[in-house]
Amino acid sequence: MRLSYILTTRNRRQAALDILRLLPANTPLPEDQWETICVDNASTDGTAAAITAELPEVRLILNRTDKGPAAANQALEECTGRQIIRLSEDAYPDDPATVLSLLAPMDSDPQIGAVSGRLIFPDGNAYAGPLPTLATPGATCYRKPVLDRLGGFSSLLGPAAEYDLALRIVNAGFRIEQRDDIIFHRRSEITSEPTDPSERRALIRDHLTIASRLLPGAVGRIYWHDWWMRDKALAARAVQTHAAWSGFFSACIGRISHIFTAPDAMSRESVEDLFEYRRHNTMIGDWARRNSVWRVVLADFSENIWATFNACRSTGLQMRCISDNNPAFDKLVYRDLPIVPAGRAFEGGGIDGVIITTSDPAKIEPTVKQIRNHFHGPILRLSQTVKTATRAQATAA
């Protein structure tokens, strides 16, 4: 069999039914070449009964707990398809060509472990992971033998789950191919900040666990510091400081336990592929020489701020500050660089250029507009929105 869909759901009967109904029309494969497996995580709203009655062709697994990650791996064991698309309850492929576009690269190149498309929200913005090299949840096709070899989907939560699976795929010698032309639509927004303290605790624990368990040596210590600094500030802004520290100490306990177990950190080559250190160095160095830039402002306190900071330091640039309008980060200091709103970042003048560190396309252009209110010199986008990239390619041609 060529393709297996996996959908996990809990008390989202209508959303799950809507997505499952769309699959036959949007899957241009013979009936015997694809399947759908749905895991119901202890729903109490009649989800399982409704799926059984209306969609008997969907293979239903009844999970008596509400553990999402475990449920996805339970479904993975039942899949017979060579490729796996893990659906979300609110996301669906744009058209039949979407599915074929996900499958084709994997058929032609055995080194591709996953093909990731774009997930578009109702407002037209695209989902952006912490890094542009991560697989997009709900809009990615995985090679099943790769998932089986790696032990399945991540058991971690939030961004940590994206890091975990991507790090393991890349470290195993496979690539994650990013395709901006493959579109999935999402019917609702993703809540970026947890409202429940227990969820905050778990997210911070898992986030820091990635740094201590999978990132090697000094790199792990750097990202532990950076991610904890961000997470703690965001938690304080949400009045969840106690939950943040609880998550921190839980991660510390796990960090100690890793000392006594076999190391499973990824190689430095894999770290480079994921965090793009060489790409940052090349782009920043070329841009600085081309525009005679020396004194710069970094814009956005992103999760990969270290890659930009280190590239600027390596190329001899003088960094003034980090510009970020998120009030959670105001008055913080990152490696001797004050984090200030855009209105204060350019006080006193003397700035030659600005580097946008974020990979989130929904933030890049708004950040540029904010900066243009105070600065009219050269701006480097380390990641580009699709519109900007298309325009740049046309100009180059």
How would you describe this structure in keywords?
19% strand, alpha/beta, Spore Coat Polysaccharide Biosynthesis Protein SpsA, Chain A, 397 residues, disordered C terminus, six-stranded mixed sheet, 3 domains, single chain, Rossmann fold
CATH architecture classification of the largest domain: Alpha-Beta Complex
Q: From the alpha-carbon coordinates, what is the Rg to the nearest angstrom? A: 22 Å
How many strand segments? Answer: 14
What is the CATH superfamily classification of the largest domain? Answer: Spore Coat Polysaccharide Biosynthesis Protein SpsA, Chain A
Order of helices and strands: EHEHEHEEHEEHHEHHHHHEHEEEHEHEH
Q: What's the CATH first level of the largest domain?
A: Alpha Beta
Order of strands, widest sheet: 3-2-1-4-7-6-8-5
Structural class: alpha/beta
| Largest β-sheet summary | 8 strands, mixed
* Regions with little confidence, pLDDT below 50 for 5+ residues: 385-397
Shape: globular
Count of discrete alpha- or pi-helical segments spanning 4 or more residues: 15
* Proportion of beta-strand residues: 15-25%
Number of individual domains: 3
Taking the alpha carbons of the first and last residues, their distance comes to 42 Å
Please summarize what this structure is.
This protein has 397 residues and is α/β, with parallel strands linked by helices. It has 15 helices and 14 strands.
Task: Describe the fold and architecture.
The protein is an alpha/beta fold. The chain folds into three domains: 3-186, Spore Coat Polysaccharide Biosynthesis Protein SpsA, Chain A (Alpha-Beta Complex); 198-270; 276-396, Rossmann fold (3-Layer(aba) Sandwich). Helix content is 46%, strand content 19%. The chain is built from 15 helices and 14 strands. The protein has helices spanning 13-26, 47-54, 68-78, 96-108, 144-150, 158-171, 197-213, 217-237, 241-259, 268-275, 277-291, 305-314, 342-345, 361-372, 386-396, and strands spanning 3-9, 34-41, 59-63, 83-86, 91-93, 112-120, 140-143, 175-186, 295-299, 318-323, 333-334, 337-340, 353-356, 379-381. The protein has an eight-stranded mixed beta sheet with strand order 3-2-1-4-7-6-8-5, sandwiched between helices. Strand 13 (353-356), helix 14 and strand 14 form a beta-alpha-beta unit. Helix 6 (158-171) crosses helix 10 and helix 8 runs antiparallel to helix 9 (241-259). Mean pLDDT is 86; it is low at 385-397.
